[in-house]
Amino acid sequence: MKTQFIQRHTIPSSHLIVYFSGWATPPELVSHLSIPLDYDVLLCSDYRDLTLNIDFSVYQSIHVVAWSMGVWVAEQVISSFPLASATAVNGTSFPCHDTLGIPHAVFEGTLTQLTPISRRKFERRMCESLFQYYNQFPAIPFEQAKQELQHLYDLLQIPKDKSVSNFPWTRAVIGLQDRIFPVDHLRTYWSQKAVPIVEINAPHYLFPYFTQWKELW
Asked: With the C-alpha atoms ordered 33, 149, 104, 132, is the resulting torsion angle positive or negative?
């Protein structure tokens, strides 16, 4: 896993925001969000491995914001730390699931038929009207993106019971134009978990609809 701190001072701030990106998306996608005073931000991406070697004990509070596949990843790597808040954005704990996530056939088809052209089509569906805005950011190399998706798919094949996911999510944000995770699957999952849901008229990639991190928790 790649990590990058922003607004990291010589001495750590008192509070930390941890952002888990979506599959093969640049962490710069959230660079426009205003950071509160006395906060550091840790950007996590590149899930070809899930190693996260960060000393979280130096912070008084930790806020998690996880997007898409990053929702599942967050549960794997940061579940042992007490959190002030945890927000899931257009994702669930079961990203490859016929009723609670991306249907198996769609997920597997994306992987087995992945080409540079099909990836661009995926990004168009992900962004909708924000596609041109998305293109200003550096693209993840295709081979890296393919390896990342394969690794995530392999990990997701390990059987997991619905009762296992006890991650303390405090909010779910759902974009009503999401064409990656079916909206009804997102609603079903977070309703079952009794997690407060915020719905906005936005696509899967929706961070331009926010201006500051605090709006996400």
From this structure: positive
Q: Which two tokens stand for residue 47?
A: 């899930």
- Asked whether the beta carbons of 107 and 96 are under 8 A apart, the reply is yes
Residue 96 carries which DSSP code? B
pLDDT in tens, the chain (217 residues): 999 998 766 677 899 999 999 999 999 999 999 999 999 999 999 999 999 999 999 899 999 999 999 999 999 999 778 899 999 999 999 999 999 999 999 999 999 999 999 999 999 999 999 999 999 999 999 999 999 999 999 999 987 665 447 899 999 999 999 999 999 999 999 999 999 999 999 999 999 999 999 999 9
Q: Cα–Cα distance between 95 and 185 in angstroms, integer? A: 10
Q: What angle do CA 83, 84, 85 make, to 5 degrees?
A: 90
Give the 3-state secondary structure percentages of the chain, helix then strand then coil, rounded to 5.
35, 20, 45
Residue with tokens 């605090």: 214
Sign of CA pseudo-dihedral 86, 79, 160, 44: positive
Listed in sequence order, the residues at least 6 apart from 58 whose beta carbon sits closer than 8 Å to its beta carbon are: 12
Write the Ramachandran bin of 58: left for phi over 0, alpha for psi from -120 to 50, otherwise beta: alpha
The label of the residue with tokens 């500051």 reads 212
- Report the C-alpha dihedral over residues 170, 175, 176, 178, rounded to 10 degrees: -120
